[in-house]
Specification:
The protein is mostly helical and 324 residues long. It is 88% helix and 0% strand. It contains eleven helices and no strands.
Amino acid sequence: MNFLALFSFLAYFLSGFTALIYEISWVRLLKHVFGSDSLALSTLLTVFIGGIALGTFLAGKLIDKYFRVSSNLSSKDIAAVKLGQNYLLLLAYFLIELLLALYASTVPVLLGESVLVKLWSVFASFAFENFLFGALLKFVLSSLLLIIPTMLIGMSFPILSELLSSHIKAKHNYHQDLDLIEDDHQLAISNLYATNTTGAILGSLLGGFLLLPKLGLTKSILLAASVNIFVALLVGLIFFLNRKLVKNIDLVELVNFVLDYGAKQSAQAEFNFQKNPDQEQGLLRYKKVLYVLTTIGFFIGFINLSLEVLWTKVLTLVIGSSSY
């Protein structure tokens, strides 16, 4: 498919852009729920980062299991299989962006008097007697309402990474220098993440300094949702530009083929691994390194988010309680 690389970068840039607008807007809504900036921010960061992590994990697992391609196939056959896989990935991303736009548009209602306040009123008599219980209950209720859109945001990275990876492999005709493909892949993924961060910075600046003061919470969220719809329309444009490739695709047959083929490739890879004892030793070394890196990553995330809450508290003393 054409334009996969361009789409991946543009889509992930806009994903970062809208995500930070949502985050800034939702933390303002949660402030009305908790009555405290620090509690609202802590809750939002927990569910926002947790939901993104969960969405990334689930999407990554599914892609790893069902979107494998045997290296024993010819370049032409690999291209045919990847065409079907990319079609499904784009369709999934189309649905994710639409669902995110629809759900995010309802968040002002969900966190307002119509839903959350009514849920809170059911337990209010118990919560008033214990501040900690009340704060914990608000945290749980808010998290349940926000976990879905944050998971949808998190699913973007594995899908777009796989699309970008497919583009890189196709550019090198699949069977050329594997080291060169790996180098290009690592660079592309780094650039993809940097693009998302750039979008997040722009979303934070425009959301906090322009959109919220000028448009208000609800309109700012609807604007971000319209960007998600725009990205979904871009998927439709890619299908249109590649209509000669995808016009004869039967969606049901394609889904069955991709899932069945991917499951067989995963099973074959597991079987080959068990037959090779040298790979088991390599896996043990890999797991040790992975545990170390995971532990380091955990503490880095813990420190970074703790500092964000503390810095927000300090800045509140300087500039007051506002979107700035």
